[in-house]
Input
Amino acid sequence: MNQPIHSDAGVIFDHIQDQMIDRPLLLSPLTLRTIQLRNRIVIAPMCQYASKDGSPTDWHLVHLGKFAIGGAGIVFGEETAIEPLGRKTYKCAGIWSDAHIAQYRRINDFIKAHGSVPAIQLGHAGGKASCHGALKNWIPLTPENSPAKYSPWTVTAPSVINSSQQWPKVKEMDRQDIQAALAQWREATLRSVDAGFDVLEIHGAHGYLIHEFLSPLTNLRTDAYGGDREGRMRFALEVAEIVRAAWPQTLPLFFRVSAVDGKGGVWDMDDTVVLARELKARGVDVIDCSSGGVTGSTSMPIVPRVPGYQVEYAHRVRQEADIQTMAVGMITTAHQAEDILRNGQADLVALAREVMWNPHWPAHAAEKLGDEQAYDLLPHDYAFRLHRRDEECNMPVNRVT
Output
């Protein structure tokens, strides 16, 4: 497991661990570089399709703010595009302009004020850009199914896989395009610093641009960015290098992988372990283990959607690449999350749809795990009233008021 950079942070963490040895591991602090998390609970990125020209809105303030109020350790915003053409939809988030910075900072200031750590996931949709939103199952934009102001655009990808389809139109990235993309990753990282984020994650999964470079099913290149696994990893590693150089050394860097491709894919766990080792060597602190996004005609099976279906990916990466990991995927109960950590399968657990249903999941999980400080994950005014309620409930029924 990686150690904090500053020894004083490590001393503080050790002292807190000694004080809280009997607390559930889920609720124990964790130090990543110089950032101390109050617990191991992460709110995973959830695309909202509610941005305006890339900027977050009041919806995002409320959507993300309630998770900080609910007691989470890290609160991720949604996947955030490094350039306009890298969005999936016109309503996706972005940070390609300095005009976006103040809007993100407003939200981040609120998240920090309530004890959580704000995080951003930077990404580029690659060949999956230029589409409708989730409610229309991300079908490609076409001149026929889109109003003029939401017209389709030409997307960029490592290779043109199907040139016969009308939309989306795909441009294979040349060396100039790759260098331009790397520069955009750098600029987006610097804006993320200015916006007050304390954790940054590179999205290298789900069939988006970086994953498209990694998989031999979507990368048919014959230059230095294609061919064998080393060539196909080149773009991902260059992104990690340029982001790490622009991101403060005091702050942690995550990288999301699709540990295995989808049904019929080719990229597998052996590939992911090699990638994770190379990412660690370039200063990545945590591997966020997801799956899927690229499918094909091989014998690779579909990943079954059962509780904790991606946890073993995080476990294997943690063991074989000797790097901290985050588990995500149908983690819904407090005891399930605690067991993942106790069994050494991951260092962090991330939830998405479960916290849509219950944004106070961290505090409720603490209660279910028997933690006497469950209320204290909530804002002080909330905790005060809840403690008072419990005191009153234990008083005699005929008490004088």
